[in-house]
Amino acid sequence: MRIGIPKEIKIDEYRVGLVPAGVRELVDAGHEVVVEQGAGAGIDFNDDAYASAGAKILKGPEAVFESSDLIVKVKEPQPEECARLRPDHVLFTYLHLAADPVQTEALCASGATAIAYETVTAPDGSLPLLTPMSEVAGRMSVQVGAAHLQKAAGGRGVLLGGVTGVEPGRVVVLGGGIAGTNAIEMALGLKADVTVVERSTRRLRELADRFGNGLHTAYSSPETIARLVEQADLVIGAVLLPGAAAPRLIGRGMLSSMKKGSVLVDISIDQGGCFETSRPTTHTEPVFEVEGIVHYCVANMPGAVPRTSTLALTNVTTPFVRKLADLGWAEACRLDPHLAAGVNVQDGRVVLPALAE
Questions:
Q1: Quick one: average pLDDT of 288-305?
Q2: How far is CA 206 from each of CA 177, 212, 243, rounded to the nearest angstrom?
Q3: 131-303: CATH architecture
Q4: Check: CATH 3.40.50.720 for 2-120+310-356?
Q5: For 195, how many CA atoms within 13 A lie in the half-sphere containing its CB?
Q6: What is the pLDDT of residues 226-272, one digit of tens each?
Q7: pTM of this prediction?
Q8: Residues marked as catalytic
Q9: Which alpha helices (H) appear in 53-113, and where do they start and end?
Q10: Sign of the torsion formed by the C-alpha atoms of 332, 336, 338 and 344
Q11: CA distance readout (Å), 290 to 33, 256, 275, 293
């Protein structure tokens, strides 16, 4: 099979769909890999490294799309990339279509088969291709939240860990999944006062057992969330409904009760966001204010640390790329129902039930 790796064109995105080691594995298995010139330059994988691994370097995205059967990317295809897709193409990347009807319509119009990293499942029900980026985003959420709490950045001027004689900052984490757990770990590491809000009492017990008395737990309800955010310095939204839009947990009306200069970090923004006032931002302009509350809503948070993120991502995606290349998408999905759960769009239709709804 011919596998194409185009250069990512979304703003401030430097990750790449495969690293040279993955290319070598595919080439050794008898496949042909083409890589767009400069695709890995942003994370210090130059064209020579890809060529040494057996890839053919092509100039321009048109040549890569034209030459490939399977397109492997990181971020959702931009409009000009959707226009390059053909019915015989298989696209394997993050899609996050629930919050993006324009992209969904463009993928349907292309006729291509679009397989989303974020809905591929594991036998235990987890999302193995989303997990590494959730880990990165969860850890980053505390870093960026702490930075934007600084007065010069528009925040309240609070040090999350406090100091002797001064209480620490209060962090509320909405959601106890992978991203939320990593946010909790980082916030506790900074010695903040941390509360996690979660609808699963089983998960709350697991988190309490893992982190001990340093973590406060709260069952999710509108009243509980409203009470907690009033006193919070940093609120991290880390809620995920696989394949569906994120629930809105903080409405605009709650902002007036929050402390001015407090920070909201919306990890769920690529699924529409879990704050009513959220809108996607970029690493170049990551924040905005609504009623004195700082909002950080970067839709590709792991793109800020692209080398770490790419290595973590390709560790888990490469085996699936190999399976798709060896068997073809239809046979690979027939044999692996967990990979089949990743098929979002096929033959001009949305086929993932949650997304179709």
A1: 96
A2: 11, 10, 25
A3: 3-Layer(aba) Sandwich (3.40)
A4: yes
A5: 19
A6: 999 999 999 999 998 776 778 999 999 999 999 999 999 999 998 88
A7: 0.89
A8: 96, 270
A9: 61-67, 79-82, 101-110
A10: positive
A11: 47, 10, 11, 5
